[in-house]
């Protein structure tokens, strides 16, 4: 119950005015006590500079155009002049492996017992699209983005050898799997957090007798494709089979297109069933004047 509830309306009003004035006086006294003059000026100055800073900063952000940012959405498309295809293997050995084939004296003694004789897991790695495109393009150089254990790379090695093409297959992968990667059946031999995927991939290449036709760049897709671009290494056939989310697929496709031989080269990829991949493929096709053909689980630009 309010103490003023028994007063008549006029008294009630006066009472409130009195209380209000009294309250103001108390506040002023408190402010005078708390804020000595210099202190008050200082705080006022802080508030004013904050407001000024807010106004001058936020207004241009609202009205500024983003034209200058669009360039970040385009990928440079000029790589070095192409080197002859018969120099590509040596170029990669020189630049990545100090001139020596990584398959020399492989596997190292301590690694050998940790590898599986047979572990060639893959997805759609033997699909008919490989044979279709290898027959069509007769590639001297194949670039694969996303190799995992090398199932499709060794399949392509067999196909090209069968056709007497002596193609060089360049495998790009960081050979780490992916976050959450774990194979219930096989990756139990992890060593201090290393899944040994690189060594197992190499073992699979050895098993397939493909150590001459396959070479690899054990880096992330963007970094490895940047290297090929710098060295003038182009692929007649470029295969994208890495991450499935839109941004990864979009970046991989754009970066890989830089090192696709033009004209005549063909770019294709796996995982058309994934929405992110599909969106990246069709966006790229529309922007660059390609059509998309579906071959099983794969997409082909033509
Ligand atoms: C790279 O090769 C050179 C020349 O053969 C050699 O002297 C050097 O030790 C090698 N470096 C490494 C890290 O193996
Ligand atoms: C690899 O070569 C060896 C010996 O030359 C042969 O026995 C083996 O069948 C070959 N493997 C494949 C997959 O071609």
UniProtKB/TrEMBL annotation:
* Pfam families named in the record: Methyltransf_24
Provide the leader sequence positions: none
According to the record, the residues making up region (Disordered) are: 1-20
| Keyword match Cell cycle | no
Q: Which domain of life is it from?
A: Eukaryota
Keywords, A to Z, come to:
Membrane, Transmembrane, Transmembrane helix
Q: Which InterPro entries does the UniProt record give?
A: SAM-dependent_MTases_sf
The residues that cross the membrane are: 40-57
Q: Which PANTHER family match?
A: S-ADENOSYL-L-METHIONINE-DEPENDENT METHYLTRANSFERASES SUPERFAMILY PROTEIN (PTHR37909:SF1)
Official protein name in the record: Uncharacterized protein
Organism of provenance? Penstemon smallii
The organism's lineage is: Eukaryota, Viridiplantae, Streptophyta, Embryophyta, Tracheophyta
């Amino acid at each position: 119950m309010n103490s003023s509830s028994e007063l008549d309306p006029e008294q009630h009003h006066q009472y409130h005015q009195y209380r209000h004035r009294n309250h103001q006086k108390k506040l002023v006294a408190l402010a005078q006590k708390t804020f000595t003059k210099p202190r008050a000026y200082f705080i006022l100055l802080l508030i004013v500079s904050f407001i000024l800073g807010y106004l001058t900063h936020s207004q241009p952000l609202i009205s500024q155009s983003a034209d200058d940012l669009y360039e970040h959405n385009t990928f440079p498309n000029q790589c070095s002049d192409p080197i002859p295809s018969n120099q590509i293997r040596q170029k990669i050995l020189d630049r990545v492996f100090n001139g020596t084939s990584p398959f020399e004296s492989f596997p190292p003694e301590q690694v050998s017992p940790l590898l599986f004789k047979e572990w060639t897991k893959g997805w759609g790695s033997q699909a008919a699209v490989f044979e279709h495109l290898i027959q069509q393009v007769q590639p001297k150089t194949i670039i694969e983005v996303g190799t995992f254990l090398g199932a499709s790379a060794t399949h392509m090695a067999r196909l090209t050898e069968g056709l007497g093409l002596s193609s060089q297959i360049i495998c790009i992968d960081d050979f780490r799997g992916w976050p959450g990667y774990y194979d219930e059946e096989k990756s139990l031999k992890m060593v201090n957090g290393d899944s040994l995927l690189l060594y197992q991939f190499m073992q699979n290449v050895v098993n397939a007798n493909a150590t001459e036709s396959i070479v690899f760049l054990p880096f992330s897709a963007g970094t490895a494709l940047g290297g090929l671009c710098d060295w003038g290494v182009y692929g007649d056939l470029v295969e994208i089979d890495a991450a499935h989310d839109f941004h990864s697929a979009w970046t991989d496709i754009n970066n890989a297109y830089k090192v696709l031989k033009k004209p005549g080269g063909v770019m294709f990829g796996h995982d058309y069933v994934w929405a992110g991949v599909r969106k990246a493929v069709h966006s790229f096709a529309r922007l660059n004047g390609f059509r998309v053909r579906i071959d099983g689980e794969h997409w082909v630009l033509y």
